[in-house]
């Protein structure tokens, strides 16, 4: 399960802390040293760890905490609050266009889960009675179009495609027109990825962005790749002004670094979490629930 190592280490530290009646400054320091190590081992960005521990320490060493009847619990509450804040504080919802359709552009590296997530997001929107149109703009990866069509059939959502011989910008433009003609309230555009962030990819994405003026640009990143996911998010955000991140593969044994660092490093909120290959394995991301899950 994701975060297993981090969760068990933190629960261990806090178990010891909770058990103590009174806390000395040294007890708190010792616990925070262990928290620091646990976060680093979970592949959380080192600057993020440093600031996080400093913030917790500042609050935990205060007189009120030391004098409270259950100081260990108070420290755990502080950590919980700061972990939640680290991941964005409150849930960051999907934007909605004043005038439909709301346009969502999905971007990311190949293999991150972009196409799968496009289908999952459509399904999530359908559950809210929306009528999304999926647009197949990944004309490079063999079978990407077919994959989206299969997903569309599975969830009974229309898929707009012009094959792989038409430019992605043209497909996006025509897809928008079809959504307007058919009164779809959401358009979700699946774009191409590459193995690495490169200029050609970014130029193409910028051209699509220019053509469709999306309300959301969601970066899909594989949580299993840890700090790499954060670096990818940083470069995409610089170029594309992302509106949100979708973390995929949280059902795997990710150590958690990406989930805990991406918002702090990029300023970009995590909007959804994918926890499996099935089409309904996508959930809105709630920082407080994730923090509680980690702290047990
Ligand atoms: P794309 O190249 O970014 O479009 O990636 P795909 O959507 O084709 O996904 C790549 C692989 O990752 C596929 O085998 C998906 O089934 C798998 N995948 C996507 N999201 C998840 C997830 O949340 N959990 C797991 N376990 N696998 C996922």
Automatic annotation (TrEMBL):
<keyword id="KW-0694">RNA-binding</keyword>
<feature type="domain" description="SRP54-type proteins GTP-binding">
    <location>
        <begin position="101"/>
        <end position="296"/>
    </location>
</feature>
<feature type="binding site">
    <location>
        <begin position="190"/>
        <end position="194"/>
    </location>
    <ligand>
        <name>GTP</name>
    </ligand>
</feature>
<keyword id="KW-0963">Cytoplasm</keyword>
<dbReference type="GO" id="GO:0005525">
    <property type="term" value="F:GTP binding"/>
</dbReference>
<keyword id="KW-0342">GTP-binding</keyword>
<feature type="binding site">
    <location>
        <begin position="248"/>
        <end position="251"/>
    </location>
    <ligand>
        <name>GTP</name>
    </ligand>
</feature>
<keyword id="KW-0687">Ribonucleoprotein</keyword>
<dbReference type="GO" id="GO:0048500">
    <property type="term" value="C:signal recognition particle"/>
</dbReference>
<feature type="domain" description="AAA+ ATPase">
    <location>
        <begin position="100"/>
        <end position="247"/>
    </location>
</feature>
<feature type="domain" description="Signal recognition particle SRP54 helical bundle">
    <location>
        <begin position="2"/>
        <end position="87"/>
    </location>
</feature>
<keyword id="KW-0733">Signal recognition particle</keyword>
<dbReference type="GO" id="GO:0003924">
    <property type="term" value="F:GTPase activity"/>
</dbReference>
<keyword id="KW-0547">Nucleotide-binding</keyword>
<dbReference type="GO" id="GO:0006614">
    <property type="term" value="P:SRP-dependent cotranslational protein targeting to membrane"/>
</dbReference>
<keyword id="KW-0378">Hydrolase</keyword>
<dbReference type="GO" id="GO:0008312">
    <property type="term" value="F:7S RNA binding"/>
</dbReference>
<comment type="function">
    <text>Involved in targeting and insertion of nascent membrane proteins into the cytoplasmic membrane. Binds to the hydrophobic signal sequence of the ribosome-nascent chain (RNC) as it emerges from the ribosomes. The SRP-RNC complex is then targeted to the cytoplasmic membrane where it interacts with the SRP receptor FtsY.</text>
</comment>
<feature type="binding site">
    <location>
        <begin position="108"/>
        <end position="115"/>
    </location>
    <ligand>
        <name>GTP</name>
    </ligand>
</feature>
<comment type="similarity">
    <text>Belongs to the GTP-binding SRP family. SRP54 subfamily.</text>
</comment>
<protein>
    <recommendedName>
        <fullName>Signal recognition particle protein</fullName>
        <ecNumber>3.6.5.4</ecNumber>
    </recommendedName>
</protein>
<comment type="subunit">
    <text>Part of the signal recognition particle protein translocation system, which is composed of SRP and FtsY.</text>
</comment>
